[in-house]
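Objective 1b. Sequence-to-structure analysis of Intercellular adhesion molecule 3 isoform X3.
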Amino acid sequence: MALLKAWPKSSLNLLVFAVMLSESPEPVNLEPLPRWILMGQNFSLRCQVWGGKPRQNLTMALFRGPQELSRQAVSEQGPGKAAEVTFTATASREDHGVNFSCRAELDLRARGLGLYQKSSAPMELHTFALGTPRLIVPKHLEVGKKETVSCEIDKLFPVENAQIHLSLGGRSLSPTVVRGQDMLRATAIVIIAEGEKEGQRELTCNVTLADHDREVQENLTVYKSRRDPVPIVMGVLLALGLAAMAGAIATLCLWQNLRKGSYQPQTLPLQDRTPMETPETGPKGPSPVASA
């Protein structure tokens, strides 16, 4: 009170008048941000503030963490309306997981008062990048034979938030997933069971990130192996050729032995020979001359 009495009456009246005309800026609101924003895409941050009078002394600033990005003066609004400013920014990799906020500042220092500041609650921004997946698969699948299929995608951020799925003919596969620097790969072993029909099967790769997805498909041909008759014919011809060769070798050896005179056909001794019976002669008996 003593300080107020020491002031000149005119200055005191001006101070009271300035206080009566001023109003601190509160509350300050930052409109909710999209859950995810694609890297390189522009987005808007809209700040609103109630109060903050006189408006010609009110400014709004946008902050990325502790860094001030932009500052704007607030235009005059109708009575009872919130003051509003809009900032435009471009989403980047560095913005992922960073808090954004806006701050209202009412500067009354020229009127002998102070600088009044009020900030909004921070909003966390999430940015992402999502490329196009590609399939690495054979064109044909043989029934009963193991084959490897894989799907890769790069230009992916953040990799840890991405999910990848593989399916063949509408049935989900159980791939092995490898995560790298901005890259994701899924590899699976497929076997077409015996008895399944031949024809086309659709292989699908789906990658999901940040409420977005990318999908690619490719048709594979399932077939059953037919036994090739050529190896069978060749086997038969080979067997026949070996038999003919063995016969030729045996004949050649016999002919050489005959030329050298070393070949002796086996004969029975005379005493071991017995006359053969023939129907015309009958059995041999004693001679008629001997009986006389």
